[in-house]
Write a structure and sequence with these properties.
This is Bifunctional 2-dehydro-3-deoxygluconokinase/2-dehydro-3-deoxygalactonokinase. This protein is of the alpha/beta class. It has 11 helices and 13 strands.
């Protein structure tokens, strides 16, 4: 079977108290699978694409919890099972201002940090329409830095469109460390997704969204650059033209995973033949819906996304 989209990266188990409870007081924790690349695979899969998430997991009950969850949510799964290494987790304590949301990672020694190209389904990458990973993956270990580079190059060699989200995490590496590694990967990236703040702080492109997109496209020969801007929406630049998309109004129940929902929605529409403008709109609508849903994943349907678009006066033919 050939897939529309293959993704590669770590999926952790997310443990969080209900509501805005403090971790130190919590008597119970919600137990969910969560990871940028698997989030995108699930999100795009629920919106019509044939998707496959690939990674390396410990051969344990916790590893199987991850794969069982992702399959049940709509993504294909292909993992290398490891007798060594552990299942990464993170603890999430949600709160509004002024306390703010806090994330505590517990992922050192995770099995995924030893993943090499030999652990991954490279034939599926070669046959896919698109391959997606993010800047989280090469930040996790020197081995994953090399593996990310090798798989991106493999996808390029087989004319698979490569999509890369900078997705900077300050708890994993510094701005300077990230920039050096990411820029080494950029020659094998076709579509770059970057948050406006990451372009400023990590990539050193201190311009407005349109300037960021054009500068990066010109410097690295990206086919498409998508700049996400939080409450300001998003902008995409391709073939010399820029397209903007406003964010949709939404009640926020759980903001974690909003960016992955945007990317999943964007790719679902774009890989289905949609225009750049339609893909941005689809991504923005998916992201708005995600903020109403607990957990990291946008458990939505195409009809729900299209309803958001219709209410705003937009229309997409799928």
């Amino acid at each position: 079977m050939s897939y529309d989209l293959v993704t590669f990266g770590e999926t952790m188990l997310r443990l969080s108290p209900a509501g805005q409870e403090r971790l130190e007081r919590a008597g119970e924790l919600e137990f969910r699978a969560a990871g940028a690349e698997s989030n995108v695979a699930v999100n795009a899969g629920r919106l019509g694409l044939d998707t496959l998430w690939t990674s390396k997991l410990p051969d344990s009950a916790l590893g199987r919890k991850v794969t069982n969850t992702l399959r049940s949510q709509g993504a294909g799964v292909d993992v290398a099972w490891s007798e060594t290494g552990r299942q990464g987790t993170y603890y999430l304590e949600q709160a509004g201002r002024p306390r703010g949301t806090n994330v505590v990672y517990d992922r050192e020694g995770a099995a995924v940090t030893t993943a090499t190209p030999a652990d991954l389904p490279l034939d599926e990458v070669a046959d896919a329409d698109a391959f997606y990973t993010s800047g989280i993956t090469p930040a996790l270990s020197a081995t994953l830095e090399e593996t990310t580079a090798d798989v991106l190059a493999h996808a390029q060699d087989h004319d698979t469109t490569t999509v890369f989200d900078v997705n900077y995490r300050s708890k994993l590496w510094s701005h300077a460390e990230a920039r050096d590694v990411l820029e080494a990967l950029f020659p094998d990236v076709d579509v770059l997704v970057v948050a406006e703040r990451d372009a400023w702080e990590v990539l050193g492109v201190e311009r407005d969204a349109a300037g960021i997109a054009q500068t990066l496209a010109d410097e690295w020969d990206f086919e498409t650059v998508v700049v996400t801007r939080g409450e300001e929406g998003a902008l995409a630049y391709e073939s010399g033209d820029a397209v903007t998309q406003s964010a949709f109004e939404t009640d926020t129940h759980d903001p974690i995973g909003t960016g992955d929902a945007f990317v999943g929605g964007y790719l679902a529409e774009r890989l289905d033949g949609g225009s750049l403008a339609d893909a941005l709109a689809y991504g923005a609508a998916t992201a708005a819906l995600k903020r109403t849903i607990p957990g990291d994943v946008a458990l939505v349907t195409p009809a729900e996304v299209e309803s958001v678009l219709a209410e705003s006066g937009g229309e997409i033919s799928r």
